[in-house]
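Progress against Task 2.4 (sequence-to-structure conversion) is shown through the following example record, which the project officer requested during the mid-term review.
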Amino acid sequence: MGGQNEIPMNTFRFQSAQARREKSNRRAWSLVVLGIAFPLTAQLSLAQSTSVEFDRCLNGCFGVCDAGPASSAWGCRESCSRECENAGPPRPSPYGAIAFGTQGAEGISWNKGSWAEADKNAIASCSRYSSECKVVYRYQNTCAALAVTKDRQHFEAATGSTAKQAEANATAACQSHWGKCASNMSSCSFTGASQSSQPAPRPQPHAISWGAIAYSATDSQAGWAYGKNDRALAEKEAMAKCSERGKSCALQTAFNKQCGALAADRSFFGWGTSADPKEAQRRAIEECGKQGGARCTLHVYICSF
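Structure tokens generated for the chain above:
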């Protein structure tokens, strides 16, 4: 009885109650894993595959489900996706600010985590064009725009449901207080909106824009230049244009992001500069009078912004 090739009956045809329960649990778990894995994989590929934080959270949750008391808990893995769906990168905050400085410099920020951060970024952007920038407007969960006057001395800011609407509102507010205005900077700052989805602010005004005036008093000929990136280049061009007609040209003035004017009466002349066009003209005529002119009139008037 009991040859060597016989297989014990209790290990082949019969199993203990404990063994049957363990085998049944393993089969049920296999079905659960198959039922969860496929839809979960699809979900990850569609919505969460790019989130490193989500993947890390999910792997950790699965590890808890596969070991210890949680391994026998029904639906443990099903709950992992729900628990980890908010584990991605933090959603942007809705704080934004606008800064304005001398020489018409502007700066804007959006989707920052605090007012302090929004202010800092707006001033940093503005400071590329001026050393005297300050925050003039703050906005949250909306779009905002800045409109400025032609001489870039006055401005108004406003909000709107879209960037275009904010620009229209800012322009209207500016024109109601200061006359002709234009909006050249806007953005939107909303909770949960990525920075890349925001419309890019319009180009900043030129940080440098040199102009120059040359004049020949003996024959009342003039030359000028504007919108140059270099002072020497502006002066050279003004002299070259004056020399095409004048015989005794001399450089009179050069200015950056301002207006320039020259007034003359016979051999008497004077010039003036200012960010305000009317003020530049007034100074030129006044200076011409001081030099002896009785009927000084404008010969040159240009702005370089």
